[in-house]
Amino acid sequence: MFNLVSLLVTAALVSLQCSRQAYALLERPKLIHHNNLESNEIPTPRRRELHKYVKIDQGLPEIITNPELPLVLQCVIWGKPAPVVTWLKNGLAITDFEEDSNEIFSSHPTSVAGLMSKLVVPAPANGDVYTCVGTAGSKQKTNSTTIYTDEDSEELELPTAPLITAYYNSILQVMGSSITLPCRHYSPTKAQVYWLDRDEELIFDNSRMRVLPSGDLHIKDLSFETDMGQYTCTVKNSYGTDTASTFLYVLRG
């Protein structure tokens, strides 16, 4: 009799344990479904994206200069997408006044870049206000300077060598896209523009690379393996040369 009772108690305990295990197995999928997770799966972290921005790294100081001598103003702008620059004279676009001024060039929406922009003022006038306007997407920053002339200031030699007025210090852009590396320049006489690639080889026009009439270098279908590196623009006239380098970072998609 005692053995029969023991067997019945043991059977009841085993049945209870099996019921608990079955209940746990039934509830586990509900818990996984509730948290939108698959079993043994680790969520993939999201890549942080850099928001659009623009900033002027070097401002324009007030300047005292000789009105008989050309003046060079410069402005460094960083931004995403790669910034463009407009120069103003007394609040109006500089192209309304000067023929030799910086032009606006387009940029890729995914790019990040630092742009050096210089403006040559052939005949500075007392009280003129010049403004550098940096634009990246919908973001914009400005910086201004006032010119003061002094006819008794020290005479300087007139600049006759060319001057590169716009180029990227560096730029980041995704592979597979196209990019234009600016090399705008000022030269009082006819100038020649040429580019060296990342291997310091002279770039000739081909199916992927082309030097534009403005002096800019256009590259199609960017490749991580073959295009990332430093590119150098040289402007030369009969009186001298000027060079500027851009480091191109090609990002994998």
UniProtKB/TrEMBL annotation:
Residues 45-148, 162-249 form the Ig-like domain. One of its GO terms (biological process) is axon guidance. PROSITE patterns: IG_LIKE. One of its GO terms (cellular component) is axon. InterPro entries: Ig-like_dom (IPR007110), Ig-like_dom_sf (IPR036179), Ig-like_fold (IPR013783), Ig_I-set (IPR013098), Ig_sub (IPR003599), Ig_sub2 (IPR003598). Residues 1-24 form the signal peptide. Keywords: Immunoglobulin domain, Signal. Transmembrane segments: none annotated. GO terms for molecular function: cell-cell adhesion mediator activity. It comes from the Eukaryota. This is Ig-like domain-containing protein.
